[in-house]
Structures are given as C-alpha cells and as structure tokens.
Amino acid sequence: MSAHEVVALTAPAALAQVRLLVVGDVMLDRYWFGDVSRISPEAPVPIVRIEKREERLGGAANVARNAAALGAKTSLLGVVGDDEAGSQVERLLEGGGIHSYLQRDAAISTIIKLRVIGRQQQMLRIDFEDAPSDTVLRDKLAQFNALLPHYDVVILSDYAKGSLVNVAEMIKAARAAGKIVMVDPKGDDFSRYSGASVLTPNKSELRRVIGSWNTEEQLTERAQQMRAQLGLDALLLTRSEEGMSLYTADEVLHMPTDAREVFDVSGAGDTVIATMAAMLGAGMALGDAVRTANRAGGIVVGKLGTATVTRDELFSQ
Known about the structure:
Elements: H1 3-9, H2 12-16, E1 19-24, E2 26-39, E3 46-59, H3 60-69, E4 73-81, H4 84-95, E5 99-105, E6 111-118, E7 121-128, H5 134-147, E8 153-157, H6 167-176, E9 180-184, E10 198-199, H7 203-210, H8 216-230, E11 234-238, E12 244-248, E13 252-255, H9 268-281, H10 286-300, H11 311-315
Parallel strand pairs: 1-4, 1-8, 2-6, 4-5, 8-9, 9-10, 10-11
Antiparallel strand pairs: 2-3, 6-7, 11-12, 12-13
C-alpha cells in the first residue's frame, strides 16, 4: 500500500465511517497517587499518603476507548453492577464519545481494579470482581444478535471474568453476517474462538495453549498449526519487547517493537487490537494494519496506566 493510500484510509472521514462493536469484560480502573515517605510501624510496608485520584475505563471498555480515540464510531456491549462504579463507567463512556449498551446486573458489583501509585511506581493492586448472572448473559447474547447488522467490525475482549461465556455463538453469528471478528483471548483452550478473523494472544497466553518453544521455527510451526485448526484468517502474537509476529496462510511477518521508552505495559494489548480493528474497518490491508497497531502499541507503553493513542499521535510519527 502506498503512503498516499495509507493517509487516505486513516483520514478522519474514513475512520469516522468505521462502525465498531466491542463486547467483553467491562472494568473500572481506579488510580490512587500519593507520596511515600516512611514505612508503617504496623508491618514492613510503605505508607502511601494519597494526594490525587483518577478513574479510567478498563478491560473491554478500554478497548472501546482506544477505538473511539482514533475516530471510529464505537459502541460497547457488556455487563456492570447496578452500583456507583457502574454509573461512573457510563459517565466515562459518554465523555469518550462511546455508545453504551451496558447491561446492569443488580446481583453483582462492577469489576474494579484499584492501583496505588507511589513515586511513579505501582505499590499495590486490589481487584473487586463478580461473574455476571445467567439471566443477564442471555439478555446480552440476544442484544448482540440484534446489534450485529449495524456494525462492520466486532472486537471480543476476553479477560476471563465471565462476560464472554457465549463467545463461540457470537463468533459464529458475526462471521455468518460477514463481519470482521477480532478476539483478544484468555485461558488454556482457544477452541471456543474457532472461526474468528484474527486472534491476538500475547506470549504467555499462547504458551499456555501450544507449549513452550525453543526456536522461531518451532514457534512458527505450532502457531500455524493452531491457526489452521481454529480456522483463523490470521494469528497476531504480541511479544512485548520482541515486537509482534503475524501468521497467515500466505506469510509470516515479524515486526520489531516500536517503543521508544517503556513506562507501563498495562492496556497495550487493548490499544493494539483497537487500532488494528479500526484500520481493517477503514479498508487497510492486514499487514499495514498490523504495522500501524505496532506503532500505536509503542506509543501507549510510554504512558502511565490504561491510556490511548490519538490519530494525530499515530500518524505524526
């Protein structure tokens, strides 16, 4: 693809036409920032005096936030509790220009990841989480099927928190409708993701499924075997400091990391899948979409916490 074609596909007007539906585990990321000056007399732990608090969209909501930051017309389908944190997620979605199709489940609490930061270092993370109830999950699947005709690209963001127990049915329905389906997987059984367009595991996630590898040749053989068995168009392996590797039926494409400075890797996978989905939705070729996503991942790891990359940041590089 020529530079002129890339610019045309990533113009604001082109990205604004992309209709993207994100489905998965919705979370609220809370950050408490403070000063550390002494050790507690009660236990050998630092005392953090909180001076500032921030709240950001996490999990599947962070994927949606990243897609919206690039200008894609983005909606989010997921489950939150009928609580204060769920209301805050709704407010943050509205502020980010993301259309919310969140189901409120009175039987659970919204998933929260609370991070305590002292001296620019994460001192502690506390997680609050419950799995959604069966009734809400059935309603969510019915709503997914109703929404499907209105979107071009579907991202299924699985954090193994219970929102995607129907993922196999979702993939089948979306592919039958001719949609691009991208999946960020979890767990040691990827068979439920069969038939997806693109699967985007990181190294540890892939290792749980195919085992360890000693050489690139061994990795390629196992990755290609799994891609073929699952009927995927492509497998994108995100490899942290080693960059990314794309496996398709026609080629294997390795890209070195684009990071200039690694400050925080949390949420980088969300940025990668959201960027790739937006670019594919705009009509960009697979290889170019992966290169663009690699660049986005390199930018976001230079920021603290679950962050986003704007179109201007991405294409001014």
